[in-house]
Design a protein that fits this description.
Length: 105
């Protein structure tokens, strides 16, 4: 996963302003369940589903992001100029790039 970071554009951006872009050809889906469903046994994904966690944060003028899941355990500092938004996007982008490159099963 660390190999995808140099390709990520978000690190070198001087601003976190983004131009709106529509993408209608997605090969994935996002499922956001309600709190009741996540409170019991149903919180665990179905067999064969891969679950990854991403996070970006900024504390004491230092930002960074992390990715955790099957085959991925990463914590990356981004320095003092990155915003929380940039850190969050870097986490998601790095995870997505890694999944595309490695095609885990």
């Amino acid at each position: 996963i660390i190999q995808v970071i140099p390709e990520a554009e978000m690190i070198t951006n001087v601003s976190d302003i983004m131009v709106k872009k529509h993408s209608f050809d997605k090969s994935y889906f996002v499922s956001i369940e309600n709190r009741d469903k996540w409170s019991g046994k149903e919180a665990y994904p179905s067999k064969g589903v891969l679950k990854y966690f991403t996070d970006g944060s900024r504390i004491d003028n230092r930002a960074g992001f992390g990715v955790y899941g099957p085959g991925a355990k990463l914590s990356v500092p981004l320095g003092k100029h990155a915003t929380v938004f940039q850190a969050e996007v870097m986490a998601i982008e790095s995870c997505a790039r890694w999944l595309i490159l490695t095609k885990p099963k």
